[in-house]
What does this fold into?
Amino acid sequence: MGIADSSGRRERNQIEVIFCLFPLPGRFRLNGQRRQVVRARTILSYLVLTTGGAGLVHASSVVCLMGPTGNTLVTTSCGQTFNSNEFMNWGAPTGSGGLGEAINPPSSLGQPVDTTASGGSGWVINDPIAVSSNMLIERADNTEFAWDQSLGSWVSPTYLVYGVGGSTSINTFAGHFNAPNLETNSSPYSSTSGYYGTSPQFGDPLLSAMANPQQTQQPCTTNSQAGCAQMSFNFGQSLFGVAFEVSNRSGQDSNFTATLDAYDSSGNLIGVYQVNDTAGGGTCPGLNNPNTPPNFSDPAPCNDAPIIQFYDPEGRIKSVVLTVNDNQGLFVDGMYLDVTTPDPGPATLIGGGLVVLALVARRLNRPRNSKGHQSRV
It folds into this structure.
């Protein structure tokens, strides 16, 4: 979890390669130049420590596009392009606007699911977000194992918290987000307390759309998207920016496409942002059982799920619809929001100051009548 903005997102080993030039609108223009940027991210995600020292390297890449409609997309730079001031942690306690630990079966969550984003000091707080989907909605933690200090071994989070034979289980998914990889129970991935200090947290707290296992799924193809996983987010107020990490459910190191449509308060399409990810979807092989051959090592999170985002300089984003080309489901990590009005630029401030000075000077220079009062001009 964590998107790189000025508030401190995690850095990743990534390479940006500039291939050719293309026009970027407004906010996305870089130093007056027009660039097409494809981010190739090479991430060391899995090292097998066995006799002989064999190693595996996991590599993924992502191409990002944007445009006013889905038919007019052009390649753009990847990553978050705005500073966020609100954050939606799906794993926050229910009393703090989140959905709590991932222990509820998806069928128990009615739709829409009501959540609340939190702001930093001085920012708006308690900003509601209503989430709905064409599939079942569930909470899941991005991991397969948690460290058991008493056993000195990696075990399932359900066993660590509830033991054997318990009636409660923790939903997990060993995906391409961040996950515990240290032999410790300290935060942020702790068996005793998470970010909020009130409940455990095992891997990034995810929100998922999951296909109903009791139903036959429709296909999700270019020509037939009826079965594609979708998730809609309706915001309590209009936003300038929204960003989060996303992945699909099927396969291991799978390829997927995610599309984010942004709408204003009248339901008009503002624009579209799309990511085409190679080998960054499904499950992460580095999170497989570390207690069996050939692993015998701590889990190695992939932590390379791509960022999907949309920024509107006019602050009109009232809802977004996420579509992933997987008929089994999708996952999203914590959501970063920009709810502020952009600061006025220096030229605007100077121009406004000159107008005020001119009005003051005009008032002082008005001619006075015989009684000493200023005459109206």
Q: What stands out?
A: Residues 346-364 form the longest helix (19 residues). Residues 15-342 form one domain. The chain has two domains: 15-342, 347-377.
